[in-house]
Amino acid sequence: NAVLPPLAVMMPARFKSTLPPPSSSSASLSSSATPDKSNKKDDGTTAAAPPTLMQRMRAFPQGVKELYRDCMLYRHIQDAADTPINAWTQTGVPRRAFQQQRQLRADVSAMLPLILLYIPPIVGFIPPLLAAFCPRQVLTRHFHNDFEIRAYAEQESRQRMASYEGLAQCIPMSSPHDAVRLYRTVFAASADHDRVRSVQALSRDHLIHLSLSIGIHQHLPHWMSTTLNQSSPSWYLRQHIARVGQMVTQDDAILLQEGYDNLTDIEVMDACLMRGLPIDASMRESLRDHLETIAAVRQEAELDEAFRLFTLHLAPLRAAWQRRTS
């Protein structure tokens, strides 16, 4: 029977990092950022800017090795969690390890075709070239430095926020700041609007705006992600929305049980991005307020599909309402 080492020892390096401060403008990755002394790479340098094309191509093999190490860590977590006696028996797998497994599954799915191309000698030069010219579109965080992780998250957040107003127009509401009232009047079983009680009942326009707000294809440029969402079949959008709703609701429950004050900067950023909260200097406070709101609604809500839809709508509706009233 395996006994797990302390979780901090098992954490991938990117979970331990301290992010650089938010950029002062919405400029591209070429904009400068204030260096953070605590934001060090393994070689002791500060990641205050994206790497050059040549640096990224040379670093590609190291990223593949890091991805492989994470796969071994994933297997270790899975094996240890399945044993009758281990450090997690009483409370189950901690949220940090659970999130690491979930993110790695997504990373491997995204990177597997590129890594397979990297193996054959004839086409092995293609992945480094793609890594150099399309880092956000084709690479995962194993191949990004901390500056890029923050900058790409800000870009994705801005792309999502562009769809919030359209999503708000699909929901009859007065003010989403009273979250309990919003749930009662729109999502609860006693509400008059049955069309938001299940994913199957959502209109085509509603599906498109909701899928954009939760980040389907958001690693692509805005025009491309919008086109892909508009051309995707409704069954695909419904399937993806249902999966994300289940994931967010589950993560809310774990964070409310374990607490969220000890999350690292990157973990807070990921949690905010997952819920549609803004990525800025106050994102830790935004996450705390959001989870407190979810906890208040959970006290009277049925934890069903309608509640999962409510969790996906809450942050976008609040942001859209704030824009209207500001």
Automatic annotation (TrEMBL):
Keyword S-adenosyl-L-methionine: no
GO terms of molecular function: ribosome binding
Name used for this protein in its record: Letm1 RBD domain-containing protein
Lineage, broadest ranks: Eukaryota, Sar, Stramenopiles, Ochrophyta, Bacillariophyta
The keyword Signal appears for this protein: no
Transmembrane segments annotated in the record for this chain: 110-133
Biased composition (Low complexity): 24-35
Domain Letm1 RBD: 136-326
InterPro entries per the UniProt record, alphabetical: LETM1-like_RBD
Species of provenance: Craspedostauros australis
Keywords from the named record: Membrane, Mitochondrion, Transmembrane, Transmembrane helix
